[in-house]
Design goal:
Elements (H helix, E strand, L loop, with lengths): L15 E2 L4 E2 L4 E2 L5 E3 L4 E2 L4 E2 L2 E4 L4 E2 L4 E3 L4 E4 L4 E2 L4 E3 L1 E3 L19 E3 L2 E3 L4 E2 L4 E2 L4 E2 L4 E2 L4 E2 L9 E4 L4 E5 L3 H13 L6
Parallel strand pairs: 1-4, 2-5, 3-6, 4-7, 5-8, 6-9, 7-10, 8-11, 9-12, 10-15, 11-16, 12-17, 15-18, 16-19, 17-20, 19-21
Antiparallel strand pairs: 13-14, 21-22
């Protein structure tokens, strides 16, 4: 299935958009030349992206998401599901510093900022309205419950379910069935993994 025409951007300007990927009509990519979207992935309508973004294969980014970060990069692996309303924030003002804040402020008057890449490994699940702050790295198979907050000082274990503000571990998850299904799909569609 081919992406429908987008209302805000010419999809031809996207650095890489696999023919089987779908970008909703109302997705806003501020820097399409810094965006890569892999095979079978979908970005739903009303999602806003203002940084470099690399999306793996068979990944879904739900509606009304925000992925921001200025010069930073957000990397999302294969088989990831990001529910509607999630916020991936790779750049933010440093609220503890002096100076004016916001994108309208000339650099000589601005306070400090925090800019750090976000990395989301394969098989990660983010529930509705999860917030991921600058510098977070989510290992393989992590699941974050709805309305949770993850910050860079947290150390998360693979294949574990977390929830809360800040997110705390609830229980381990098994990834055997997911990995097996992923391997079958990779073999069936091996041309998309070369």
């Amino acid at each position: 299935m081919k992406s429908p025409p987008n209302l805000f951007i010419d999809l031809e300007k996207v650095a890489f958009l696999h023919p089987s990927a779908i970008v909703g009509r109302t997705v806003r990519l501020r820097k399409p030349e810094r965006v890569h979207i892999g095979a079978g992935s979908i970005i739903d309508d009303f999602t806003y992206v203002s940084c470099a973004l690399k999306v793996g294969r068979y990944t879904h980014i739900g509606a009304n998401g925000v992925i921001i970060g200025g010069d930073a990069r957000v990397t999302i692996g294969d088989f990831v599901n990001i529910a509607p309303g999630c916020r991936l924030i790779a750049a933010s003002n440093d609220f503890a510093c002096d100076g004016l804040v916001g994108p309208t402020i000339p650099p000589e008057y601005a306070g400090a900022s925090i800019t750090s890449e976000i990395h989301i490994a394969d098989h990660v699940l983010l529930g509705t309205n999860v917030v991921i702050l600058p510098g977070v790295s989510l290992p393989e198979g992590v699941a974050i419950g709805a309305c949770s907050l993850v910050h860079a000082k947290m150390s998360l274990a693979p294949w574990t379910l977390y929830a809360g503000v800040p997110a705390k571990p609830l229980r381990s998850r098994t990834g055997e069935a997911m990995r097996a299904a992923a391997e079958r799909l990779k073999k069936e569609r091996s041309d998309e993994w070369t």
